[in-house]
């Protein structure tokens, strides 16, 4: 029996160890570890790319904002300089006027006791402070309106420049036309228009109730007033609605607090509920109406009789309006998706405009009998750029067309129909109709309760001293 060499024995035991180290298990662990490391690196790269993209995007956004701010500041600087320039011219004119006033006042001191223009101007500062608080509380909306105006100015300038270049390249004869366009652009005072709108907004501060219509039919629940209209001279106003009656009231009688019940001067009955009435702006006795039965009627208020009845609408007629330029023409809108044009001298409609939806309002342009607006909205009245409208919150709102926020609002008080006392609960009431009294600061409004309680209120936009003291400045800027 021979003896084995120990070195060989060692080799025999070492060789299997190398096989274990090179086994698939160990190699697999190494491969997994490498994959995990590679995946971790890829994930870190992705996160880094995401972070980089975020930072780059944020930088680009801030750069855009910065450029926009620079442009906004440039516009503000330009307009501040322009206002300063205009104020210098205005102060020079004012100085000359004050000198003339001083001379005239010394010559007529015994006859004229009114305060001088200088004294009037000395009272402006407190008013400006009060209105400045109002304006600053709406700074965001004012800022939006200002820069919206500014963007239109820049767009107009760009379009004018482009148009001018094309005209000059196209034909040398168009130089005069381009020059006229440029002059027209220069005379368009957008800054002055914005300032004028701002002053008109600040001119009024609140609604003040001036009168309440009291009638004897307070127990009648069907007294919702759907429409109001003043006559040509604004001496009378008409109210009509679901009661199927048109009632004519004298305007000044509502200011008499000693009257317990206001009786209509004239009352005219209709076959159906009334949706709209409109007084003719030229023929004082003519009043038009539309009803739930689709009929359009022309009434003679002096006799209380129907002069014409038009029956072409197939469904409820919502709105009617006389043309101010051509008072023998009127238009009506209906649920039958049509606008009918009428003449008080014709028995049938003179034209029809088809629409894809119900027509709830229709109104002629105040400057043309050929321009007409219509839509699907009710309960709005406009005068001198001021807009009054009702709401389902039982409030009357006043706006100026140049700015998006309301000037003021007035909430109708709620009355208990039994006790007649005012309550905090509006019981789902809403303002059903509003109407300006001509070109004035008076508006008549009706809500959904019966007239004796709160159905008809006269409200006045209270004129602040800012509007009085600075009435001239609105046109000098």
Automatic annotation (TrEMBL):
Organism encoding this protein: Salix suchowensis
The UniProt record lists the keyword Signal: no
Keyword list, A-Z: Repeat, WD repeat
SUPFAM superfamilies according to UniProt: WD40 repeat-like
Alphabetized InterPro entries for the sequence: SPA1/2/3/4, WD40/YVTN_repeat-like_dom_sf, WD40_repeat_CS, WD40_repeat_dom_sf, WD40_rpt
Sequence ranges of the WD repeats: 267-309, 310-352
Name of the molecule in the record: Uncharacterized protein
């Amino acid at each position: 029996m021979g003896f084995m060499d120990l070195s060989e024995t060692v080799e025999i035991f070492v060789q299997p160890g190398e096989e274990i180290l090179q086994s698939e298990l160990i190699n697999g662990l190494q491969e997994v570890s490498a994959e995990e490391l590679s995946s971790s690196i890829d994930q870190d790269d992705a996160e880094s790319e995401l972070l980089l993209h975020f930072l780059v995007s944020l930088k680009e956004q801030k750069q855009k904002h910065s450029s926009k701010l620079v442009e906004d500041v440039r516009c503000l600087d330009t307009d501040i300089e322009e206002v300063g320039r205009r104020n210098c011219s205005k102060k020079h004119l004012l100085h000359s006027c004050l000198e003339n006033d001083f001379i005239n006042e010394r010559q007529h001191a015994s006859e004229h006791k009114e305060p001088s223009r200088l004294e009037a101007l000395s009272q402006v500062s407190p008013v400006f402070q009060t209105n400045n608080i109002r304006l600053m509380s709406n700074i965001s909306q004012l800022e939006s309106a200002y820069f919206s105006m500014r963007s239109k100015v820049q767009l107009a300038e760009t379009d004018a420049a482009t148009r001018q270049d094309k005209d000059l390249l196209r034909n040398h004869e168009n130089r005069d036309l381009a020059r006229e366009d440029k002059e027209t652009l220069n005379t368009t005072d957008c800054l002055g228009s914005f300032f004028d709108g701002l002053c008109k907004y600040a001119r009024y501060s609140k609604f003040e109730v001036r009168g309440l219509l009291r009638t004897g039919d307070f127990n009648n629940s069907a007294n919702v007033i759907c429409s109001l209209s003043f006559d040509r001279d604004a001496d009378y106003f008409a109210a009509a609605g679901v009661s199927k009656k048109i009632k004519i009231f004298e305007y000044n009688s509502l200011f008499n607090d000693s009257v317990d019940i206001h009786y209509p001067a004239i009352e005219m009955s209709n076959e159906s509920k009334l949706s709209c009435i409109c007084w003719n702006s030229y023929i004082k006795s003519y009043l038009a109406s539309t009803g739930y039965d689709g009929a359009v009627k022309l009434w003679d208020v002096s006799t209380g009789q129907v002069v014409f009845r038009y029956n072409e609408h197939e469904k409820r007629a919502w709105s009617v309006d006389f043309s101010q330029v051509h008072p023998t023409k009127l238009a009506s809108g209906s649920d039958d998706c049509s606008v009918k044009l009428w003449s008080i001298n014709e028995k049938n409609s003179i034209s029809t405009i088809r629409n894809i939806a119900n027509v709830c309002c229709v109104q002629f342009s105040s400057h043309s009998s050929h321009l007409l607006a219509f839509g699907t909205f009710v309960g709005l009245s406009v005068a001198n750029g001021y807009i009054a409208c009702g709401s389902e919150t039982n409030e009357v709102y006043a706006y100026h067309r140049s700015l998006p926020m309301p000037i003021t609002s007035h909430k109708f008080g709620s009355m208990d129909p039994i006790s007649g006392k005012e309550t905090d609960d509006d019981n789902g009431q809403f303002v059903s109709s509003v109407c300006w009294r001509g070109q004035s600061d008076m508006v008549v409004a009706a809500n959904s309760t019966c007239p004796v309680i709160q159905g008809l209120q006269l409200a006045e936009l209270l004129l602040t001293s800012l509007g009085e003291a600075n009435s001239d400045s609105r046109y000098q800027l």
